[in-house]
Amino acid sequence: MAKNTYDNVELKMVEIQWAKLEKPNDNGKYAIEAINLSDKQVKELKANSIPAKDGNNRKDKNGNTKPDIGSYISPSSREPVTVVDGAVVPIEGAALGRIGNGSIANVIVRAWDWDNEYGKGTSVGLQGIQIEKLVDYDPSGGGKFKPSPKGYVQPELAATTTVDDDDIPFG
Questions:
Q1: Which of 3, 10, 22, 170 could be disulfide-bonded to 96 (CB atoms 3.0-4.6 Å)?
Q2: Is the Cβ–Cβ distance between 137 and 98 less than 8 Å?
Q3: pTM
Q4: 45 or 58: which leads in pLDDT
Q5: CB-based contacts of 77: which residues, under 8 Å, 6+ apart?
Q6: CB within 8 Å of 5: residues ≥ 6 apart
């Protein structure tokens, strides 16, 4: 397959989800999903050899479609991606892990050709991200949980963890 040269495409004000930018995902890639793309963005991507996918055709683990994500792309990179805030100040380290589902960003992507033992094709590479509106990811579930005296406690913590019944909001 002859390698083509593709231009960067900047998608303005797109909703992102599943950002893996602090460290690579299980496939060794830094990645996001850009979702709910406008018709204009889909046309611009297609003109640059990047086909957007349709959420109506995407199935979750139970076989249900995902129309709520509309048209989307899943760009990725094997190298860390430059991420900046609205003032073009780099976002780095643990702060990258704060980028949650529903954040709004300007995203630069570019098509690239590949040809290897698995076949050949064109994929979409993630070039850079500018966060316009941060939806803060909180792995604790938003801090909404209170200690539960009958709840599971990790074995290595069991000997040092106690729960006072007075701290329980229900029960």
A1: 22
A2: yes
A3: 0.77
A4: 45
A5: 29, 30, 31, 125, 126, 127
A6: none
Instruction: Collect contacts of 95-98 with beta carbons under 8 A, ≥24 apart.
Output: 96/19, 96/21, 96/22, 97/21, 97/22, 97/137, 98/134, 98/136, 98/137
Q: Cα–Cα distances in Å, from 169 out to 1, 42, 151?
A: 63, 48, 14
Q: What is the dihedral of CA 55, 17, 82, 78, to 10 degrees?
A: -60
Residue 152: phi and psi, rounded to 5, are -65, 135
C-alpha–C-alpha distance, residues 86 and 147, integer Å = 38
- H or E stretch at 19: strand 9-20
- Read off the amino acid at residue 110: R
pLDDT tens profile 1-23: 456 889 999 999 999 999 999 99
Q: Which of 3, 14, 26 minimizes the C-alpha distance to 128?
A: 14
Under a CB-based contact definition with an 8 Å cutoff, are residues 58 and 33 in contact? no
